[in-house]
Amino acid sequence: MPNTRPIVSTGNDGFDSILKGGLPSNRLYLLEGTPGSGKTTLGLQFLLDGVASGESVLYITLSETSEELESVAHSHGWTLDGINLFELSSTEGVFGEAYEQSILHPWEAELGDTIKLIQQRVEELKPTRLVFDSLSEMRLLAQDSLRYRRQVLALKQFFAGRAITVMMVDDLTTSHGERDNHLHSLCHGVVTLERLTLDFGAARRRLQVQKLRGLDFVAGYHDFTIRKGGVEVYPRLVAARHHVQFTAETVDSGIPELDNLLVGGPMRGTSTLVTGPPGSGKTTLALVYLAAACRRGENCTIYEFDERVATLISRADSMGLDLSRYVANGQLLIEQIDPAEISPGEFAWRVRTQVEQRACRMLVVDSLNGYMAAMPQEQQLILQMHELISYLSQLGVVTFLITPQSGLVGSMASRLNVSYIADSVILIRFFEAQGRLRKAISILKHRTGAHEDAIREIRIDSKGVRVGKPLVNFRGVLTGTPEFQGDEPALMEERARDE
Fold first, then answer.
1. Could you tell me if 271 and 205 lie in one domain?
2. What span, in angstroms and rounded, lies between the C-alpha atoms of 94 and 106?
3. 61-86 per-position pLDDT tens digit
């Protein structure tokens, strides 16, 4: 039977997206994770959303002081005005000397009196949202696991009749990081936060919803970061849930000889892999298509892992592509990616933002090797890239993926076997002829239709990109050391000589 309870927002758009709207109200939820994983920040966001809605909210802290919570709030630019705080230390002020004069063991009196005071504050304030931080202190006060579980069950029953949405925090410190299955069974939903320390770069954080009774949610791990302003959650991308209608048309570069290689150019909603040795012109080739898209008035994005943005713009402008003008008018966004600071989930979320908020129609990733190097300890990068490409395809975005090959001439290889995820593959190779180092271009794959199978010479200079005639009098061009056969080599010369 579907859940009919009102949904309450967590105060976090990304988290709400994972929960497909939010949490069913008036239920008990467990927020667990090791210290430093972001539980307190997420809990405060939950309560601040309640304050913004005019609700009465209560933060029960058995582990942190009000000064420490104020410090956390201040670091995010928040104020705790409107949040009622209950501290464990305040029990002494309420119970006075009688607190120490009990025939019971001190820990029994401590736990019982603390629970009574919590119930008293709840009765006085009648909050609709409550964060209980944390259960580890309750374990310490209870000493006995059976007593602790009885108290948690009693609290659940106490909250159940009072229309309160409760988020109980557990830092896992007293159980050596092991999850309390009994506690999981008591709660309506369980959310786990993790903090992973890598060999180099920033720590990675991720969360997963382990259970949410009676409701569908996006399962699996979701990356998140903690920045000024709170927790930013990046829901895992599921390409099948995104699709829009678009016209399947070719996208031209403005250079007829280049477009003819793909019989008009790449199709909307396809990905093109441009591969070749360093310095062969892979990025420039993608920029030619991108500049043409900007001239048509489309919004475009470049994610630059390898080259400096200033160098990229300067080089493109020197060839007449005029990228600086498109950057200035907002049509083109070039984002420099810091290799040590980004997770796959955050990268996918940035791409989604460009497509769904800026209506980006063409996207360049330069390069896939940089993408892989940025996240060396991630285990499923190619699978995640495949999902991202599928998402872009379903939204009609033209994608260019740049991947360099090792070596300059002769046999070359790529460290990434990613050609299967691309709809088209363009190969650029160096070859030697007439005492000069030249470049050849060929199409290895084009899923969406016919393509030219000839190998042509390509020149990239201050005048832009030129594609020559098929190299029909050469054999072995793709090896880098071709053999000339015939009378006329039909090679391209310098433009100045032609003029």
1. no
2. 16
3. 987 888 999 999 999 999 999 999 99
pLDDT at 479 over 50: yes
Q: How buried is residue 252: exposed, middle or buried, by Cβ count under 10 Å (0-12/13-18/19+)?
A: middle
Cα–Cα dist 285/442, whole Å: 13
Pick the more confident residue, 244 or 96: 244
Do 268 and 210 reside in the same domain of the chain? Answer: no
Which percentage of the chain shows pLDDT scores above 90?
A: 57
Q: Does residue 2 sit within a domain?
A: no
Indicate if 62 and 153 belong to the same structural domain. yes
Could you give the CA distance from residue 440 to residue 446 in angstroms, rounded to a whole number? 18
Pairing of strands 204-212, 189-196: antiparallel
Do 460 and 320 belong to one domain? yes
Q: Residue 124 sits in which domain range?
A: 7-236
Position 1 in a domain = no
In the chain, how many domains are there? 2
Name the token pair of 147. Answer: 């007593």
User: How would residue 496 be classed by pLDDT, with cut points 50, 70 and 90?
Assistant: very low
Which residues, in sequence order, are CB contacts of 63 under 8 Å at separation 6+?
Answer: 88, 133, 134, 136, 137, 171
CA-to-CA distance for 301 and 288, rounded, in angstroms? 13
Under the banding of pLDDT at 50, 70 and 90, the label for residue 109 is low
Token pair belonging to 280? 């062969």
- Domain membership flag for residue 261: yes
Phi, psi torsion values for 351, nearest 5 degrees: -65, -45
Amino acid at 386: H
Are 229 and 262 found together in one domain?
Answer: no
Q: What is the CATH number of the domain that holds 39?
A: 3.40.50.300
Residues 18 and 150 in one domain: yes
Determine the pLDDT at residue 481. 67
Instruction: Tell me, yes or no, whether 259 and 227 share the same domain.
Output: no
- Taking the C-alpha atoms of residue 360 and residue 368, their distance in angstroms, rounded to an integer, is 20
Q: Provide the pLDDT confidence category of residue 497 given band limits of 50, 70 and 90.
A: very low
Which tens digits make up the pLDDT trace of 339-387? 677 888 899 999 999 999 999 999 999 988 877 776 665 567 788 889 9
Q: What is the DSSP secondary-structure string of 237-303?
A: P-GGG--------B---S-HHHHHHTTSSPBTT-EEEEEESTTSSHHHHHHHHHHHHHHTT-EEEEE
CB-count burial class (<10 Å; 0-12, 13-18, 19+) for 180:
buried
pLDDT, tens digit, 9 for 90 and up, residues 16-57:
999 999 999 999 999 999 888 999 999 999 999 999 999 999
Residue with the two structure tokens 């009000």: 66
Same domain assignment for residues 218 and 129: yes
Asked if residue 295 lies in contact with residue 331, where contact means CB atoms within 8 angstroms, the answer is: no
